[in-house]
Amino acid sequence: MKKLPLIFGLIVLGAILTSLGMYFYNDYKKYGEDKVPSFMYTDFGVYVPTEYSIYGIDVSRYQNRINWEEVAKMEVQDINIDFAFIKATEGKYMKDKRFKENWVESKKHGITRGAYHYYLPDGNPKTQADNFIESVELLPGDLPPVIDIEDRGLAAHKIFIRDIHIFLDKITAFCNCKPIVYSYDSFYNDYLENHVDGYPLWLARYGPKPDNAQFHFWQFIDRANVDGIGSKVDMNVFSGDSTAFSNLLLR
Question: Among 82, 87, 126, 164, which lies 20 to 30 A Cα-Cα from 119?
Answer without folding.
Answer: 82
